[in-house]
Amino acid sequence: MAFQVPIATSRSSTGIPTSRLAVWWVLASEIVIFGGLIMSYLMFRLHHESWSYEAAKTDPWAGGFNTFVLLTSSLFVVLAHHAAENNDTKKSFRYIWYTIGGGGVFMMVKIYEYSSKIMHDYTMFKSVFWSFYYTATGLHGFHVLCGMVIMAIIAQDVKKGKNLHRVEAIGIYWHFVDVIWIFLFPLLYIAK
Amino acid sequence: MSHAHKMSFWEKYVFSTDHKMIGLQYMFTGIAMAIIGGFFVYVFRMQLAFPGISVPGYGEVTPLAYNSLVTNHGTIMIFWFAMPVLIAAFGNILIPLMIGCDDMVFPRINRLSYQIFLLSALVLVASFFVPNGGFGGAWTAYPPLSAEAAYNATPLGAPMWLIAVALEFVAFLLGGINFITTMMNARAKGMTMYKIPIVLWLIVIASILFMLSVGPLIAGAVMLLFDQLLGTHFYNPGGGGDPLLWQHLFWFFGHPEVYVVLLPAMGIVADIMAVFARKKLFGYRTILYSVFATGILSFVVWAHHQFIAGIDPRMANLFTVTTLLISIPIAELCFVYIATLYGGSITFNTPMLWAISFMVEFLIGGVTGIFLGASGADIYFHDTYFVVAHFHYTFVPIAIIGFYAGITYWFPKIFGKMLDDKLGRIHFWGTIIPFNFIFIPLFVLGTAGQHRRIFNYEYFQDLALAEFYNLRVIATVSLLVMIAFQFVFVYNFVKSLRKKEKAPKNPWNANTLEWTADSPPPHGNWPELPVVYRGPYEYSHPDRESDWWPQHEPGPDPADPDYQSPSQNPQTT
Amino acid sequence: MSEAAEHQEHHEAHGAGRYVKIWIILLVLLGVSVIGPLAEIKWLTLITAFGIALVKAGMVCAYFMHLNIEKKLAWYILFATLLLLLVFFTGIAPDVMKPEGQNWESLYVEPTQTDVEGHGYGDGHAEKAH
């Protein structure tokens, strides 16, 4: 039996389209997940003197490059949304794939960073700072990966001209992942 | 909208995207888990009253097994019974029906949410059968006990427990997003903010509370899982971590969680009371604003669970004040409910009995909470059976009474048959009376200083007195009686389902939209979606001959400021 | 539907060029936040790191997520979560950030700078003013 979208989905009592409203709520729940982690990190960070020495061992150039990559991919996805709004499915499809490419570059840099850290003995177990470093960036990386997969699925729909409103929804999610990184970057790489 | 062709068994019952079917899946999974949780409590209460006996149906209880039974009893009853039944089951069944739409806004996410929930339940159940059994570090899972296999002796059970809980959270996050967006966006034409039935408001506010409080714990659970499996030191003070952090992360979620399950039960009770008192709900907005206040305050009371954990005494002061403050909006809710009953023409049938008993029993739970909320008194009471009795006086009304109230009230709508009222009353009294006989002795034992989490009181001279054992035996025997009476409900349930005659569309003459659909409603709920003209609680309005005024019936809205009463002088009617 | 049309119009008026402009501003800000710590002044680092992070996040939220033209409701939802995190921090920090207790003794020894630096990760950024 083919799935039929219910009438409920097309209703909009608040004036915000359902998909976008749902994404705002997803973000609210994500903010508290990352927020809980970041706040816990901050408490430890302010309390442990030695963490600033540990933080000095992170690679701000890799982190900075990744910030650049994510900001650029954010630009691509907002352009994809712009194109989707103008019903330019080809352009939208192309920009979505640029965004996925950005995510791919981000993950490659992450792999390089992780492996070089681990080779220099800065593993997850060295101290709680490094546990936080791997947990926070890992959780963030997991979100990047999820975003890439979802975008690849949406791109297929966009190509056929279906469900164009989803480009905006995934775009908002992607910007959010970007914003989280904007905060993780100074917290883990810059502040010493 | 209606699907003419016949659906296969799998399409209809297992992989359905219909909100009512998903609600039922949640409900029956929840009930199945409650049976497991109930069996656990039977085993360890037997051990406590008659230490060392071979419990019929289980055998001898070892200390390790005892810890695991208690831990999983708590976990199951809150995460796998109260939440799925009160929020997920009733939320799924009621939200689309009461706001007048054909389904949830994201039916497939809804299905996914149930599937993840089922997976989480399976992981938890599987954890009882791994070597060394299920996790035994209490449902709060404080590290270092929960973090190191060397301490908790369950190298597999502990991570499985944690993964099950985390999966369950994901399921409820997905479900919660669905509930919130559905109620915000998919309401029928005319259903403005103040025309939504209270029960939906409360289910959705509960979903929001859950969503906002669970985040830090999800992050915390990942950290605890790394501590367990990889050997990091997030919660190990020897390695630079902090065990108190987990307690805070847990209770930052854990206290709002109490309100997450309380609010739906409160909402169910509000709806039932208005219908069976045939009176307009007293103070719709008062309820709503009190609940907003409760929701906000519920985020700033969490540390009263940690008064003896060595938290900063200045913070303990602060949390005492907020804890006592939160009793104000809850007391206000109780007053509103009593005022709704006052002067009504009350029908004492089964759902109404459950609703009233909810108020009575929950009040006892609330009042005893005052002692525990005061940090000074809490130092004595904490970790005694006083705490156990207190939270069972809140959670049993919430989970068990709230569930029975809801299921007896909506049974005709959900299953299309009427429940037997006489059997329902027998079941009611057979549950309520033993319930009080279980927990009043525990209050006494707690005040006498009986500690929690002790497997066998024979080992403690002060607690092995004969009079203490008498009270323990009373509690355990009452539990057996209470469990026995649940079979009356099962019998009633099955018997009613097999009845020939169908339930009418609206057996209670209730106003809300779900009663305008067929019983049970078909896929898509209505051939044509309803429109709302007035609030849900217009009972016994003086301008009407009948004592109810359905939401969907075209006509004026008496709450409208421009409303003209047809009688010239409304005072005389 | 007029709202959707308005939305559309809004986009048309500014177009893709506007997004590129914001992207360039973001990159400049990023450059400042990377270069900031090289001055080795702690308060300046804090400002360039976190002040700029806030500005960047604000810009992404406003212009890329379109919170600037979204209904106020969405903004309230997100802002409430931030307030909640503040409550979270103030409630927990007094305990977690308290290094000593009365009834227990911490066995944890804070590593010194030389302990940490013993590993010598030579990327040139190790020595900074603290």
Structural class of chain A: mainly alpha
| Shape type of chain A | elongated
Q: Helical content of chain C, roughly?
A: 55-70%
User: Shape of chain C from CA axes?
Assistant: flat
Helical fraction of chain A: over 70%
Total strand segments of chain A: 0
Name the descriptors.
heterotrimer, A: 192 residues, mainly alpha, Four Helix Bundle (Hemerythrin (Met), subunit A), 80% helix, elongated, B: 573 residues, Cytochrome C Oxidase, Chain A, two-stranded antiparallel sheet
How would you characterize this protein structure?
The complex is a heterotrimer of chains A (192), B (573) and C (130). By secondary structure, chain A is an all-alpha fold. Chain A has a single domain (18-190), classed as Cytochrome c oxidase, subunit III, four-helix bundle (Four Helix Bundle (Hemerythrin (Met), subunit A)), CATH 1.20.120. In chain A, 80% of the residues lie in helices and 0% in strands. Chain A contains seven helices and no strands. Chain A has helices spanning 7-10, 18-47, 51-55, 60-85, 89-119, 128-159, 165-190. The longest helix of chain A has 32 residues, at 128-159. The longest helix of chain B is centred in the first third of the chain and has 37 residues, at 63-99. In chain B, helix 7 (198-229) runs parallel beside helix 9 (284-297) and helix 13 (385-415) packs antiparallel against helix 14 (421-447). In chain B, 63% of the residues lie in helices and 1% in strands. Chain B has a two-stranded antiparallel sheet. With 573 residues, chain B is mainly α. Chain B has 15 helices and two strands. The model of chain B has no long low-confidence stretch (mean pLDDT 93). Chain B has a domain at 19-85 and 101-237: Cytochrome C Oxidase, Chain A. Chain C has 130 residues and is mainly α. Helix content of chain C is 67%, strand content 0%. Chain C has helices at 2-35, 42-64, 72-96, 113-117. Chain C has four helices and no strands. Chain C has one domain (2-117). Classes of the chains: A mainly alpha (192), B mainly alpha (573), C mainly alpha (130). Chains in contact: A-B, A-C, B-C.
